UniProtKB/TrEMBL annotation, chain A:
Native source species: Methylophaga sulfidovorans
Membrane-spanning ranges: 12-35, 42-64, 70-88
Designated name of the protein: DUF3649 domain-containing protein
Pfam families: DUF3649
Alphabetical keyword list: Membrane, Transmembrane, Transmembrane helix
Keyword Membrane appears in the UniProt entry: yes
Automatic annotation (TrEMBL), chain B:
Protein species of origin: Methylophaga sulfidovorans
Name of the protein described by the UniProt record: Uncharacterized iron-regulated membrane protein
Stretches that traverse the bilayer: 21-45, 155-182, 203-228, 363-385, 405-427, 439-458, 470-492, 504-524
Superkingdom in the source lineage: Bacteria
Assigned keywords, A-Z: Membrane, Transmembrane, Transmembrane helix
Length: 93, 545
């Protein structure tokens, strides 16, 4: 099924801004769980990369250009990375 | 807009998607980003601008409190007694030593309604300074506030962050679509309409690309903990715990509601100076009057002492229980030791603030920042020039209307903002000195002028609107020194004689921009004349190209 053009663009833009932000947040949580530093330092170190990760995620969404694939491509890694990050942090503490 | 979904060969389609992203992302963000860049670039010289905007203060600024212990202690005493009488139920107090641009005891407090308040006390009398010795103005800080929060607090900070992210994306996609990045270093095809705008856009962007990437990224990093809280939220139920572990400082104490007097702050101030082995410059009290009150004294800080240091040393601080004077925490002055990640963040902050190398670094940032503003302006204009020659019909039957809105916003955002900025300096000289909330009126005036420019660009044909707004700017800029002479008696020669290089530099810079704007006005005039001559060739094209 093909959605009308303006709607497809909006879905893409949301996948990039909101999906990308969720993905970036999950990446920070994962990185700060595995970076071998004290917790506060690991959080700052991972967060410093966040804007580069976010930029890459936004660009990726517009390369894919398919809002369904783009959303899945953001949400699945978000769940995996976020879940793994939380799990590792809980186990370590 | 349809080009984004056309099926094309893999390689070309990638570049096309990036082209789409660059064009539309860039356009939507260009007006806001131009505002952020222009005000940020002006804000590089915020202290010099504040100094020019406060001519009365210049007379009393001749002192060096770093080496006058008695006066410092006396300033704390006067500050405390003023705050105890005038702001007893505040959430916080702060007392700062005078600076070159604010030549009085600087007091700040958050009142009962959590509103931020400030005042300046006369060093000798301890009374609020009158208009005759201190002109009430935001000075150059107005531009800095516009730059990072549009005078809109937390909402503004998020807005600036959002658009800065679009800038990063636009920069990266811009690099990808650029096939001949090095050749364009040296390309400028004059008087070729669309090609000239493209070359101008490319040259200003490519030449300064490392700076643009650096300034966008470091700007985002300044508010790292606001923009990207995920790591903290996932690991700490109380973010305060995170900051206290990170910075090795005691947790802030919550308000208890139990009354307790604040001890004599000047005694704590002196003790802190002895413990730090240097003068102190600033003192803050959280929850004064409450039994949870804590005070922190900060070591003296002179920018010049840190020139060339990208990882600036600690200035040192001592924290006391403000109800009994017990020491709670000491951070000695010296090498920064909060770990590598925090050091990296500190370096990025210092790189963004452009205050690590005196005037040479400031001028470098000023030129680079103006190039960034030029990149946004030429990008936004290029968008319209391209479509004025041949409509791309992206919005169907609404296309012409959308183009008109974009054009109006271009004019208001670029020349309209320029007029608002220069008017702000005129307002500083024209608004009566004794009016209440004077500083706020200057800022309101800035926004009103901007709004008038927006209406003006909506009411006039595009080329005429550009021409008229740049004409206004030219007049206001070139006449500024004359107006200053008439209102304050100061002018270039008198600043020169007094060795006031900040003000000399300010007025000369304004004149240079006035002359550049004059060039633009003459260019637009020729444009308008040639348009009148060949009306049938350029129907409805109110071109700036």
């Amino acid at each position: 099924m093909q959605l009308p053009y303006p709607l497809r663009i909006n879905f893409l833009v949301f996948a990039a801004t909101i999906g990308g932000y969720l993905f970036t947040s999950a990446a920070i949580i994962f990185l700060s769980a595995i970076v071998p530093m004290d917790k506060p330092d690991a959080i700052v170190a991972s967060s410093l990369f966040s804007f580069a990760i976010y930029t890459a995620a936004v660009i990726w969404v517009f390369v894919v250009r398919d809002s369904k694939r783009a959303w899945l491509g953001m949400l699945i890694p978000t769940l995996l990375l976020g879940g793994a990050g939380l799990l590792i942090s809980r186990m370590a503490s | 807009m349809s080009e984004l979904t056309k099926p094309v060969k893999e390689q070309e389609s990638f570049r096309q998607a990036m082209g789409w992203l660059h064009t539309w992302g860039g356009l939507v963000a260009s007006w806001v980003l131009f505002t952020i860049f222009l005000t940020g670039t002006i804000g590089v010289f915020d202290e010099d601008i504040t100094h020019w905007m406060n001519p009365e203060a210049a007379v009393v600024s001749d002192f060096d409190l770093a080496s006058m212990t008695e006066q410092r202690v006396d300033a704390i005493k006067k500050g405390q007694s003023y705050l105890e009488v005038n702001a007893p139920d505040s959430h916080s107090w702060a007392i700062g030593m005078p600076t070159e641009t604010e030549p009085g005891i600087r007091l700040f407090w958050r009142d009962e309604q959590n509103e931020f308040q400030e005042t300046l006390l006369n060093l000798k009398t301890g009374e609020p300074m009158s208009a005759a010795e201190n002109r009430e103005t935001e000075g150059g800080h107005h531009f800095v506030h516009m730059h990072y929060e549009f005078h809109a607090g937390m909402a503004g900070i998020w807005l600036v962050g959002f658009f800065t992210m679009i800038m990063l994306v636009a920069l990266i996609s811009g690099i990808i679509i650029h096939k001949r990045i090095f050749k364009d270093f040296f390309t400028f095809r004059q008087k070729k309409g669309q090609r000239s705008w493209l070359d101008g856009h490319n040259a200003s962007a490519v030449l300064t690309l490392p700076f643009q990437l650096m300034i966008a990224y470091t700007g985002l990093v300044i508010f790292l903990s606001i923009y990207m809280p995920a790591g903290v939220l996932a690991n700490y139920s109380n973010p305060q715990q995170f900051f206290s572990e990170l910075l090795d400082e005691p947790m802030p104490r919550p308000e208890t509601g139990v009354h307790a007097d604040v001890v004599d702050l000047s005694v704590l101030f002196q003790r802190a100076e002895v413990m730090l082995g240097k003068s102190a410059r600033f003192m803050r009290v959280e929850h004064p009057g409450d039994s949870s009150a804590v005070t922190k004294v900060f070591g003296w800080f002179d920018e010049e002492d840190y020139y060339g240091q990208l990882l600036r040393d600690e200035t040192g601080s001592v924290q006391f229980d403000a109800t009994n004077g017990d020491v709670m925490n000491v951070i000695p002055p010296g090498e920064y030791d909060k770990g590598t990640p925090m050091a990296a963040q500190r370096v990025m902050r210092i790189m963004h603030f452009a205050n690590f190398g005196g005037y040479s670094v400031r001028w470098l940032y000023f030129v680079m920042g103006m190039a960034g503003a030029l990149m946004m302006a030429t990008g936004a204009i290029l968008f319209m020039v391209k479509r004025r020659q041949k409509s791309l019909n992206e919005f169907g039957s609404q296309t012409a209307r959308v183009y008109r809105v974009i054009e109006v916003l271009n004019i208001a955002a670029i020349s309209g903002l320029a007029v608002a900025c220069i008017s702000y300096f005129w307002l500083n000289r024209w608004i009566p000195l004794d009016i209440t909330d004077r500083a706020t009126w200057e800022i309101k005036g800035f926004f009103y002028v901007w709004l008038v420019m927006l209406f003006h660009s909506a009411c006039r044909p595009a080329t005429k609107a550009w021409f008229e707004q740049w004409s206004i700017f030219t007049l206001l800029a070139l006449l500024l020194p004359v107006m200053n002479l008439l209102t304050t008696g100061h002018w270039l020669a008198s600043y020169w004689q007094a060795g006031d290089w900040g003000s000399v530099g300010f007025e000369l810079t304004v004149l240079v921009f006035g002359l550049m704007s004059l060039g633009l006005v003459l260019f637009l005039r020729r444009k308008m004349v040639s348009q009148v001559r060949q009306p049938q060739l350029k129907t409805r094209s109110e071109a700036v190209s």
